[in-house]
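TICKET #2291
ISSUE: user wants both folds in one file
ATTACHMENT 1:
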Amino acid sequence: MITYGSVCSGIEAVSVAWDPLGFKPLWFSENDPFPCAVLDHHWPNVPNLGDMTTLTNRIMTGQIPAPDILVGGTPCQSFSIAGQRGSLSDERGNLTLELVRIFDAIDTIRQQNGKPPAILVWENVPGILSTKDNALGCFLGALAGESIPLEPPRGKWTNAGFVHGNKRKIAWRVLDAQFFGVPQRRRRIFVVASARKSAGFEQILFEPQSSSRDIKTRSGKELQIVRTVTTPPGLRGNASSDSYIVDINRFQTVSGKTVFPTLLASMATKQWLGNQEAFSGNYYIINGNAINKPVNSGGNGIGILNSTKMYTLTTSFTHAVQYQNQGVRRLTPLECERLQGFPDNHTLIPYRNKPAEKCPDTPRYKAIGNSMAVPVVRWIGQRIQHYLAS
């Protein structure tokens, strides 16, 4: 049985995604009151350890077990273009490096117990690719075992890549939930890392075609490994020559095409609005950050789409829809759950001494917007399962 520990657990998209795979959660780590209530409601037998900054010491002292997988999406606000972009100087952004310390502690205990190294799965916004302080390079360098940040080849991090460091192998890739069976445009970067020596680790995020040097997307296009750095000739600062970066070309999906297969048929496009067909040409999508705002305030252009895909759910804005000639209405929490691939009413729980039917909408919207897209996480879990079985 594959075990995992979850940090910044939220409403546990990971457990919803991985329970059908037979993965077992050993512990959660969440301290926001409403998500904590969701965890307690759905997983009452899994301990919620609260503040993630306490985990390293608790793992090293044997108070909590060291799982096979460490998974989580640390707070994204410090890396998001929509935020202040405080990056690693932001207390929330610095939790990214705290995650590395937790991961190191897990590997230390697992080695002492004669177990193979753990696997890390981390999710965040693509804004981390372009922070001024090179936050992604700091994160990758710490995971790889370098004493300094890694520097991106040609001065800019791309949407996908691979690092082989002194300590670990690391792969990252930007994935969009709309190509995994939910009608939401949600691009997120996923990082997978491990010190395991077995071959094929990069295949967790990338699909090989005919050789180890050809990486294939689901659209049939190939991602060529274009540069392998085995010495530090200015591309990587003073990082040790025992590490190397494999930089992979950017890839584009074809507008209007379904690039990835639908993983959850129950979450198909026509079902997310309930009994009505979703966006068959008679619907308009209205971006939440354009509602009640002046026309020059942004909102991704005019903030209105005639599309089959919803804008990215966030914690700040609740998007709206207009059906045919009817009035505009905001999305319901149920629709937001479906856009993320959750079971219906996953967040409709008893809360603050009130029954589920009186659960307030505001914390539900926030928790759903903070979460991961379930089918994307399930796809990664399936890839890990295949890797560990090979």
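ATTACHMENT 2:
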Amino acid sequence: MSDATVMPPLQFAATNGIRMGYYEAGPATDRPPMVLCHGWPELAFSWRHQITRLSEAGIRVIAPDQRGYGATDRPEPVEAYDIEHLTADLVGLLDHLKIDKAIFVGHDWGGFVVWQMPLRYLDRVAGVVGVNTPHLPRAPADPIDIMRKRFGETMYIVQFQDPAREPDRIFGSRVEQTFDAFMRKPVPRSDDGAKEPPVAGIVAAKTVNLAFPQMVAAYDASRDARQPILSEQEKQVFVETFQRTGFTGGINWYRNMSRNWRRAEGLDHTVRVPALMIMAEHDAVLPPSATDGMEKLVPDLEKYLVRNSGHWTQQEQPEEVSAKLIEWRRRRFG
């Protein structure tokens, strides 16, 4: 394998009733370590560049395959993927490693999880970094109902609620096609018109095709002029893993959005730790405008814009993301 596909040795932790696979690098004495949490459809491997750069800078990093993904268990019940399980998994990982507090860094769905950590386990959180994913107040109504009214039945998160699991089958029968379609640099677009308040990170950007299962089903890589983000070797890591695991575990995270919303009633959404928000200029689904007003819920917030990047920021602009994480970590935590 090339350097770009080399990861530290895979290790396992018993946490919250599951076996979790994780990767660790950097000095064991470094405090607080940084826990890197991936999104959908991704893996700990998505953080390969940051694992190398941060550990070389003397920072301890831990990157798990989260519940339902990769080397980690995939429980059958949909309810086993709610936010309470996902956050408790990370606390159990800290317990396994005998770590009292960590900085939690999350991209995409991992971002939603790490913003919840200080709300639920403040004594275990030193800081939070959101990559593309903003911290939002609790929605005024069930977020699935809002998305269904705003975007219609073909919007991918609405489709993911299908109990027949048709989206799972579409992606699962076209794994390489899925990663060919998703893991590309975007055509630069204006953020204008995406100012509508986001719900669960979804912004009403009319230029975005949000019917992702159908997009993948009709996708032809030979007609796509966008530049791939992954090398062929890197892509095969994702393809071979998801051919083995399928997509249902990760999609089950979306199937708990209504449950998470109901169970968050009365939860104080104020983030009371130092926080960094890394935004990507050309992310069509989680644009920089989605972070507008975050300061009301995150008093100790710093924002940083990565230009010329779409949604897969830590893989599209790895050096810049790594450098910012190192700089912020050193400045705020020594």
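RESOLUTION: both attachments delivered.
EXTRA DETAIL ON ATTACHMENT 2: The first helix runs from residue 48 to 56.
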